[in-house]
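Most newcomers find our protein records easier to grasp once they have seen one. A learned vocabulary of local backbone shapes supplies the integers on the structure line. An example says more than a description, so a record of this kind follows:
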Amino acid sequence: SSTRIRNLLSSGAMSEANTLLGYHYSCDGTVAPGRRLGRTIGFPTLNLPWEPQCRPAYGVYAVRVKKQGDDSGTSFPGVANYGLRPTVESGAAPRLEVHLLTGECPFAEGDALRVEWLEFLRPEQKFDSLDALKAQIALDREKALAYFAAK
């Protein structure tokens, strides 16, 4: 039922929700400028303002990204954070930030993208410092790489 799927999404049970949907839960957004903090700590991100009707759990996910309307099958693996970014902001609206795992980013500000949500990796949390955040992002990246290597 749709209620069950909404409950699965809000609890981070992405794999189970995707199975019931019969396709990957996805969202569309346009790359917006950010503070470029990710670049300064070695993990550049695509910032995608997004206001979902059914909000997934705040946290880190393995995702695939492609340009909207690109039916060529070209997509890029990534690790995404969806949430309030409590380590670097307070009182902000939820934001979706995607770090591509391929090293190069073929997307630019203003590009319309589709993000497919594949696997919940961990809940969002606040860190005591940027160094602690950076260390965790490195672990999240490795976990996402392992997810894609197993597929």
Remarks:
- The first strand starts at residue 26 and ends at 30.
- The longest helix spans residues 130-150.
